[in-house]
């Protein structure tokens, strides 16, 4: 199976577990090397603030689901943690939650000949985020965004 296909299957497996616990998936990293397979989940509450016991519970439930499925046939290392203060911003919800804060947006495709834009989040919709830079406000479509990161 292709890595992206596996990653999507993993995501579809973990989302109901998180929904049952009133948690959300911030990021899912799946990587294979010759020596190991790593599965890293960053999870949080919609309003923020997950604790270590909740991370352990997610780890336990997801490991059970993985062990009872045919998605991963090899041994794997599963890490579940909080995204912390420097959590990646990738969805409209992430950007809306941080409206008014300073952000650095990394782009997949250039916008106004730039691949990185820094400024204050003004608003976000399902299609784009508006970031106020020194000179102007820029509308950045989500399909052009690799990730965003808060400037602390």
Task: Give a brief outline of the structure.
The protein is α+β, with helices and mostly antiparallel strands and 152 residues long.
Which consecutive residue ranges, at least 5 long each, have pLDDT under 50? none
CATH superfamily of the largest domain: RimP-like superfamily, N-terminal
Describe the sheet with the most strands: 6 strands, antiparallel
State the share of residues found in helices, binned by percent: 25-40%
- The structural domain count equals 2
Structural class: alpha+beta
The fraction of residues in strands falls at: 35-45%
Distance between the termini: 39 Å
Oligomeric grouping of the chains: single chain
The whole-angstrom Rg is: 17 Å
Overall shape: it is globular
Q: Kindly report the CATH topology of the largest domain.
A: GMP Synthetase, Chain A, domain 3
Order of helices and strands: HEEHEEHEEEEE
Mean model confidence by pLDDT: 90
Identify the strand order in the major beta sheet.
Answer: 4-9-5-6-7-8
Class of the largest domain in CATH? Alpha Beta
The CATH architecture of the largest domain would be: 2-Layer Sandwich
């Amino acid at each position: 199976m292709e890595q992206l296909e596996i990653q999507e299957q993993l995501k579809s497996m973990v989302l109901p577990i998180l929904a049952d616990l009133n948690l959300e998936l911030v990021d899912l990293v799946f990587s294979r090397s010759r020596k190991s397979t790593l599965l890293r989940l960053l999870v949080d509450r919609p309003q923020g603030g997950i604790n270590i016991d909740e991370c352990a519970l997610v780890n336990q439930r997801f490991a059970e689901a993985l062990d009872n499925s045919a998605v991963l046939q090899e041994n794997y290392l599963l890490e579940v943690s909080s995204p912390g203060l420097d959590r990646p911003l990738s969805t409209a919800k992430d950007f809306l939650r941080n409206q008014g804060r300073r952000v650095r947006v990394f782009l997949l495709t250039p916008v106004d000949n730039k691949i990185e834009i820094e400024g204050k989040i003004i608003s976000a919709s399902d299609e784009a985020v508006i970031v106020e830079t020194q000179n102007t406000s820029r509308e950045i479509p989500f399909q052009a965004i690799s990730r965003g990161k808060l400037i602390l």
